[in-house]
């Protein structure tokens, strides 16, 4: 759990509970770790948050099934990618922090699905993120409009990614 991904989760759970009277549902593969983290922020399991596993987890209210998969990132922390399998719409693959793609990309995209993938310009040995070069080698040109780059680095990342046919996730 890197703080750039979960650092404000405790604040969010607290705000939902104390200000809006909402108990947050937290979906995470390593339930014990995220539970301890949230308890350190003052959140109380079963009261301000409920933990759920992500192993083929059905969420009826959203009409989807959520699955997580261990992926490769840094040696000191586990990271996960997710597949959101919708009942009626196209599915979504979210890579999480990773230096590799851990799904079979071409059949997934051929079915009309969408990918949000960790991508950066930095292209060096031992990189913990997927470089734009590696993503370009993985995704054929005809499917790149179905791929949204995230974890953007560098001043001209968006221009480079779009030049190669990818989308860049927009901050809203």
From TrEMBL:
InterPro entries according to UniProt: RibonucZ/Hydroxyglut_hydro
Domain of life: Bacteria
Pfam families: Anti-Pycsar_Apyc1
Listed name of the protein: Uncharacterized protein
């Amino acid at each position: 759990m890197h703080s750039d991904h979960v650092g404000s989760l405790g604040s969010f759970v607290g705000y939902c509970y104390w200000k809006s009277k909402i108990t947050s549902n937290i979906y995470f593969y390593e339930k014990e770790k995220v539970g301890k983290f949230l308890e350190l922020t003052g959140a109380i399991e079963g009261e301000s948050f409920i933990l759920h596993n992500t192993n083929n987890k059905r969420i009826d209210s959203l009409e989807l099934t959520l699955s997580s998969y261990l992926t490769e990132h840094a040696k000191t922390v586990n990271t996960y990618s997710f597949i959101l399998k919708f009942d009626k719409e196209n599915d979504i693959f979210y890579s999480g922090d990773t230096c590799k793609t851990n799904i079979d990309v071409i059949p997934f995209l051929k079915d009309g699905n969408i990918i949000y993938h960790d991508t950066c310009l930095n292209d060096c040995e031992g990189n913990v993120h997927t470089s734009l070069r590696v993503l370009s080698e993985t995704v054929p040109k005809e499917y790149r409009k179905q791929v949204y780059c995230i974890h953007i680095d560098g001043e001209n990342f968006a221009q480079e990614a779009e030049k190669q046919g990818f989308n860049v996730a927009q901050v809203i």
